[in-house]
């Protein structure tokens, strides 16, 4: 660990300078030689670094979701070229290039803060050995060696012997109890962070090897922290516990307000959003508008939770617009098709007539036959025959089998009648 920390010695001066600046502030409040002054200085260093890493954290979220989306395509490539590893790698790189995805982006926050971590380890190791590092002079070095956090010196480790711990003004029991509790908290916070990612913010509709890898990391990382934690000074344990708690809180905020599509977190978020929108009749903030806009743009590709959200708005008399806003309307205007386009209301919807029973149809038929015909149609109106011509009725009567059919008399069948055969006398 000391060899790795020495590789980042170039950044120890900026790290030590930041710690000293925070120490001057907290030392005026709690006292320069107290563990609160030095411990809060390390916590403030972590917060400052994580604030600077927020853009990388956002990029990590986008990269992780893009990798989750690409998992089905990656699985197809692996099955297609399972016997040709080189072609498989080429197709993977081609897929990353086409989609603009970088697998290393999910590791950027950890990689970016690792130099600060090892630089802090180098500074605290120098405090334990009595060496001045960076801007920490002999006066600050003496003050840091006197600082204790719950009875454990800032530079003490779990593996230190009793002689070294006594030289720092403490007992080995205090050091091991404090470091053991901090290691357990550090591992537990890492496990909880990974667990909430797997149980709440993963698309449950897609089963991919990526999910299996995340489950494995959920158990591997806490064990790694527990194993390596016994070699970390108390100050480094404070640093790592603080960054784990920050990551956990930051992830909880992202899962609550910007969940992964198809996850349980999205179902809970859309339920809260539906409740708010139906109460106030509008969306609030750019975040909610962006979520609604993305759901409307998906059309038929919406998942189960998104379809339930849109249908709930329609039932409440609301219509989600393509720009992410929500407008109040009546039931007809609020109705939407499956692809998200509103139904036009220019013509009323045609309704099917109610089916009548047999007795009702027969009574209506009898009533229609009994009703006298009062209006004349165009064909029933009499026409004045032209001179020298016969009326059309006479022509049809003279022409046997003509196009016109005489009205059937009562008791006779409609249509042309078969001539009667001559009776035999």
Overall average residue pLDDT: 75
End-to-end gap: 136 Å
Write down the secondary-structure element order: HHHHHHHEEHHHHHHHEEHHH
Helix run count: 17
Q: Tell me the strand percentage band.
A: under 5%
The SS-based structural class is mainly alpha
Give the C-alpha Rg. Answer: 42 Å
The 3D shape can be described as: elongated
SS elements, strand count? 4
Helix content: 55-70%
* Main sheet overview: 2 strands, antiparallel
Uncertain segments: 331-349, 373-411
Biggest sheet, strands in spatial order?
1-2
Describe the structure in your own words.
The protein has 425 residues and is mainly alpha-helical. The chain is built from 17 helices and 4 strands. 62% of the residues lie in helices and 2% in strands. The strands form 2 sheets. Strands 1-2 form a two-stranded antiparallel ribbon. Strand 3 and strand 4 form a beta hairpin. Helix 9 packs antiparallel against helix 10 (209-229). The longest helix is centred in the middle third of the chain and has 29 residues, at 172-200.
Summarize the structure.
With 425 residues, this protein is mainly alpha-helical. The protein contains 17 helices and four strands. The strands form two sheets. A two-stranded antiparallel sheet has the order 1-2.
